[in-house]
Amino acid sequence: MEHAIKKADRPPYGLIAVLMIGAFISFLNNTLLNIALPSIMKDLNVGPSTVQWLTTGFMLVNGILIPTTAFLIQKFSVRHLFLASMGLFTLGTILAGFAHAFPLLLTGRMVQASGSAIMMPLLMNVMLTSFPVEKRGAAMGVFGFVLMGAPAIGPTLSGWIIEHYDWRMLFHFVTPIAAVIVLIGFFVLKDKKDKVEIRLDLFSLLLSSVGFGGLLYGFSSAGNKGWDSPQVYGTIIVGALSLVSFILRQYKLDRPMLEFRIFKYPMFALSSVISMVLTMAMFSAMLLLPIYVQTIRGISPIDAGLLMMPGAILMAVMSPITGKLFDKYGGRVLAVIGLIITTVTTYYFSQLTLDTSYTHLMILYSVRMFGISMVMMPVSTNGLNQLPARFYPHGTAMNNTLQQVSGAIGTALLVTIMSTRAETYATELAAGAVGNVTATAEMQQQVAMQAMLEGINDAFLVATFIAGVALVLAFFIKRAKQAEDHLEGKPSGEKIVTKLADH
Prior knowledge:
With about 500 residues, the chain is an all-alpha fold. It is about 80% helix and about 0% strand.
């Protein structure tokens, strides 16, 4: 018992450091790609609705695989899971780097996703089991600072690489770094896991894959096929029914793949909903802004990256500060202030014009990121704090699953709104120009640009409403205390004991 207390007093910093480096490079890869989307569209001759699959497809695989991470964390050691996840990530990066057609590039991204899906829940679980509740805000703040460093350097680095090299160099740049991280993990991580007799319910995995996959595919296809297409509403219906079946099945299993009983803890349930809603709103600027500044404004990739850098740096710097403020004041004050800022700035993004100044865009994006930095980590940490320790793997898996799924649905929904509204505006503007016999190719291009701008503005307007919903919910946040662990008639052997050794 005394030994266990000493272990808890001394978190495994070496193990956490290796996991953070792996998570950092995985997160960096995502931020590198956003600025590259317009270049990929041009090079591979695909439209916005197709290219967004590089983001949505990545999240789709995450959404399908993350529910299994609660099982994997209980079954395998940190070492085995880390090496498997970084190995898959490296393989996917190599594939994407040599892609000369969109399907191969998408395949590479999905293989990458199969690796990164394990990484974040694994790291979050180690953090939760390593730090007591009263120190968790500060620990999560440092964790946020490291991860937010990726968005700080990612867009600018991506812009510089694209300006001087082919977009494939983004993947070639990451490959050797990922390979070195695999080697470091192989030699540094030495933790062992007691044998745990649990099995993965394959039928649950099938229902989960069809459920999340159907929803995401349906929302993502709407941009190309329209909401009235049987392929769109058919897959959404099948996905929804499969998801309901998956949830009902989890309640019947002694060892569920994903434990939905954790939603009986009110602060965890509330934090999950707020995180989902905010993630949907957050992806609007991350995806739509690069398209606006490069496609409509003609701003170079490196300048587009520099535009987003101050906001990302601000978010990274604020992360440890909000962690300490969370430990002192709780999550509600931070979340309310942060969401007011996020909602107002998102609204201003819905008022873009063909000549909105570069400085205005940079300041607006930076203030928006400042608002988001006050919400994400405090809200999710507050929710996880209420869970008994044995539910940590399920809590982190659930949070990550819901964020990936809501992010993918949000991305697909907003890109679909942008595309469909742009088509509508293009038709209306073209009809108005029909009487003009002198309509030139230049005028037609101007019409297309104006239509896309209006589509982007409409998408941001929807994102404003979504952020507003999160703001209303934030007023109901209370400081969470860890709930007592009632095993509800289950054998005491079901308690999960994680042994972490610092090597």
